[in-house]
From TrEMBL:
Pro residues: compositionally biased ranges: 19-34
Positions of the UniProt region annotated as Disordered: 1-37
Protein name, entry field: Uncharacterized protein
Length: 59
């Protein structure tokens, strides 16, 4: 039983070296403020004006 378990589990040192590091967790979005809402709205209007063929999305 012990021999089977040892052959199934790979060497932990080799495992961590061969595998790329996991990506960092995404940062939580900052709390919304009136200024950021205004900026996002203006930015969205600019993007809609620049790309008229883009589908309109309601936030």
């Amino acid at each position: 039983m012990l021999d089977e378990r040892e052959t199934m589990v790979a060497d932990p040192w080799q495992d961590t070296n061969s595998r790329p590091p996991p990506p960092p967790p995404p940062l939580p979005p900052p709390p919304p403020s009136p200024a950021s809402y205004f900026f996002l709205r203006v930015k969205g209007q600019q993007l809609l004006r620049e790309t008229p063929n883009a589908p309109t999305q309601t936030l």
